[in-house]
Specification:
The protein has 4 helices and 7 strands; from the N terminus they run E-E-E-H-E-H-E-H-E-E-H. With about 160 residues, it is of the alpha/beta class.
Amino acid sequence: MGLYDYLVKDAKGNDISLKDYSGKLLLIVNTATECGFTPQYEGLQHLYEKYKGKGLEILDFPCNQFASQAPGTEDEIQSFCSLKYKTTFKLFAKINVNGKNAEPLFNYLKDEKGGLIGNDIKWNFTKFLVDQSGKVIKRYAPTSTPESIEKDIVKLLK
């Protein structure tokens, strides 16, 4: 299976085919609203505003798997993010990224670009950059800020 073969749920529970994103540069992120890295939403939104017209899409997957830092419903998460950080990129259903209940998309991403020590995602705000053909290009640690990956986005958008 390739990236575009996956179906995921949006924040309203609707099935979304990743085929809908074919030809787009994707930044796929597992997020949390009560994490030390939560302020990265601001940088993600800045990237989205700057490059969405050139083909960038940010796919936001809330994950409560790490210290319960994404409590609340998808509606509550959407409200928090849009009010506090003015986010306008796509929010998906809350997921697990590790273990037997991990979202299959994230298993695929981890298999394509494993971590430094094993494949498991270590914390919220792990990011995957996927090119316009669906190839997983790079995995970024939670400590990698959106600003620090902008150069990679620009390179792939050219």
